[in-house]
Amino acid sequence: MAEVFAQIMKTISAFTIPVIFLGIILLGMLRRVKVYESFVTGGKEGFDIFLRILPYLVAVFVAIGMFRVSGALDLLSDWLKPLVAKIGMPPEVLPVALMRPLSGSGSMGLASEIIKAKPNSFEAFVASNVFGSTDTTFYVIAVYFGSVGIRKIRHAMVAGLLADVAGILVAVAVSHAVWNR
Description:
Elements: H1 2-30, H2 35-69, H3 72-87, H4 94-99, H5 104-117, H6 122-133, H7 137-148, H8 154-179
Helix pairs in contact: 2-7, 5-6, 6-8
């Protein structure tokens, strides 16, 4: 039974994107929209947006690189270890929590290292929950605010970082509840 279900899902997965793509084209044709011209116009607008946000992306990626290679991440981790112990987060997970607001791929790499080193462990579980409960706040602000030209980001950044802290606290609490620790 499970094999039949897996085969059905595999077949549905193979056809989902082409069906959606053709459905959009057919709907556009039925509504007498010039589909190709609209596609090209959207592509041109997307490229213009990319050019507008490129400086913000470069700045974020340079800052992330400097943060990691300068040793600031390790220094900040060492300073925050007493606080981390009080909330019940394993110290190995702290770099994931600190990197997540800056870089999704950087924090994914750190979480993957924990998971590979200690699969099926509490540390891996917390790292996964922290990764899933927080967002790439600085990247999101750079991309979305940069694309529309918003320069005053102070309140959005504070709200985003507070949401990240709340996500970390809830991830640790849920991890303790699930693991009965």
